[in-house]
């Protein structure tokens, strides 16, 4: 049987864990061997105590405590590291709020047998508030267009992946980039897909995210898009922008030079300042792109 580790990041989810963890343990026993790892992300409630109690009753339950609240991505990164280093063959990530249904676990794991490396449990019928539901639709559509990866629920916290995928994506698990784990895995060459799953209402407590997450999410999406496209060729971006700026600045200065020869004064024309500024910025961007290429070259040479 496959070694399956279920990583559950938790921040103040004591009431939910009492119900969710036994359900996950039951589902896990039906598909393989492994552990349920609760990563306590600096909770201020009884999350750690509840998990210890569950662990004392069942050896498959484990607890890892973060020193402070560092965010879901950092908690997942810690959990992935422990799972991979402990010999996991399949790594699962699930939320602790009870909205993911552990009974769907077997179907997601089974999808890996079809040759996929990462399977997302897509919440096509959301049990969330009206605003959260429809902003998520916009978010997922935007992500698919910008990232160039097909999908309807990128932000689902219910994912099953091979251990090799969990190991490969760990360096990108910082900030809030965990939302784009599917995109990152696809960019790295792994086969990804989605499977519709049942989605429940949160059992206890309230969501830890507000509307600000969507603005942060958009900036994270631009970060992922940049890394995906220019990690190994940064000069293509900065050099291209620098060339456009330099060309625009030189064109303006040539135009002003011609008008000066024709007798027009230049001292009081803002366009003169704009032309010089565009030239300086263009040169800086070109140099920055070349320096970035040197960094990439040095990093690749040392590998």
TrEMBL record:
Reading the lineage from the top rank, the first entry is Bacteria
Q: Name one GO cellular component term.
A: plasma membrane
Keywords from UniProt, A to Z, are:
Cell membrane, Glycosyltransferase, Lipopolysaccharide biosynthesis, Membrane, Transferase, Transmembrane, Transmembrane helix
Q: Is Cell membrane there in the keyword field?
A: yes
Q: Which residues form the Glycosyltransferase 2-like domain?
A: 6-167
- Tell me the GO BP annotations in alphabetical order: lipopolysaccharide biosynthetic process
Transmembrane ranges, per UniProt, are 237-261, 273-297
Alphabetized GO MF terms: glycosyltransferase activity
CDD domains associated with the record: DPM_DPG-synthase_like
* Keyword check for S-adenosyl-L-methionine: no
Entry similarity comment: Belongs to the glycosyltransferase 2 family.
- Its recorded name reads Glycosyltransferase family 2 protein
Q: State the species of origin.
A: Microcella pacifica
């Amino acid at each position: 049987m496959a070694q399956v580790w279920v990583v559950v990041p938790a921040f103040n989810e004591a009431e939910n864990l009492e119900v969710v963890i036994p359900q996950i343990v039951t589902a896990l026993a039906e598909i393989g061997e492994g552990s349920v790892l609760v990563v306590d992300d600096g909770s201020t409630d009884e999350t750690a105590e509840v998990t210890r109690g569950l662990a004392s009753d069942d050896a498959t339950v484990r607890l890892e405590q973060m020193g402070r609240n560092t965010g879901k991505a950092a908690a997942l990164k810690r959990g992935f590291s422990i799972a991979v280093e402990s010999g996991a063959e399949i790594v699962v990530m699930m939320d602790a709020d009870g909205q993911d249904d552990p009974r769907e676990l077997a179907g997601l794991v089974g999808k890996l047998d079809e040759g996929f490396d990462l399977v997302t449990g897509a919440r096509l019928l959301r049990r969330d508030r009206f605003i959260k539901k429809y902003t998520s639709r916009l978010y997922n559509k935007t992500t698919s267009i910008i990232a160039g990866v097909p999908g309807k629920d990128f932000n689902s916290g219910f994912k099953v992946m091979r251990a090799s995928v969990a190991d490969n994506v760990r360096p990108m698990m910082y900030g809030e980039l965990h939302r784009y784990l599917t995109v990152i895995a696809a960019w790295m060459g792994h086969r990804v897909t989605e499977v519709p799953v049942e989605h429940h209402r949160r059992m206890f407590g309230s969501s830890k995210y507000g509307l600000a997450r969507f603005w942060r999410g958009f900036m994270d999406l631009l970060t992922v898009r940049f890394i995906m496209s220019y990690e190994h060729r940064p000069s293509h971006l900065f050099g291209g922008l620098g060339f456009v700026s330099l060309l625009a600045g030189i064109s303006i200065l040539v135009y002003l030079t011609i008008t000066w020869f024709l007798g027009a004064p230049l001292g009081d024309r803002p366009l003169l300042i704009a032309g010089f500024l565009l030239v300086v910025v263009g040169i800086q961007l070109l140099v920055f792109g070349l320096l970035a290429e040197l960094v990439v070259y040095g990093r690749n040479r040392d590998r």
